[in-house]
Amino acid sequence: MMQKLAGTLCLMLAGSSLAIAAGDPTAGRAKSEACLGCHGIPSYNNVYPTYHVPKLAGQHADYIAAALKAYRDGQRNHPTMSSQADAMTDQDMADIGAFWQNQGK
Ligand code: HEC
Fold it and tell me: How far is the CA of 81 from the centre of ligand 1 (A)?
């Protein structure tokens, strides 16, 4: 009886960590509102001052999550992006990655 309960609990835990790895594009859309102003423009150049902004649409979700982690953890340094990534959880990054990966298809 106890053993069966422990087995069920394990399955539940495994299930929830899978959900984190997957990323939810719908949640990611809401979390990406603030990004659209810079990353959502067709020419991928800020109007003024003119500087290049990397294209995120269609980019692989894992790449986006890894880049955001690098900004948050200080492996990459960029004032804007570091402040964007500062408050994000790993789940936020997975969701945001899933959203952008689906764009531009
Ligand atoms: C004010 C403009 C601005 C906003 C807002 C912004 N970004 Fe960025 N983002 C940039 C710039 C500029 C870079 C390039 C930084 C560099 O050279 O490291 C960048 C880089 C990135 C990269 C790395 C891309 C690559 O190919 O290396 C990712 C991923 C990213 N941003 C995601 C986001 C997400 C997600 C948001 C919203 C939560 C966001 N950005 C909001 C301007 C912005």
Answer: 5
Q: What angle do CA 71, 74, 75 make, to 5 degrees?
A: 85
Q: Distance between CA 93 and CA 85 in Å, rounded?
A: 8
pLDDT of residue 10: 44
For ligand 1, say whether the CB of 37 is within 6 Å of any of its atoms. yes
pLDDT tens digit string along 92-105? 999 999 999 998 66
> What are 10-14's contacts with CB under 8 Å, separation 24+?
none
Instruction: Tell me which residue has its CA closest to atom 38 in ligand 1.
Output: 35
35 CB under 6 A from ligand 1? yes
Local confidence band at 19 (pLDDT 50, 70, 90 cut-offs): very low
Residue 11: per-residue pLDDT: 45
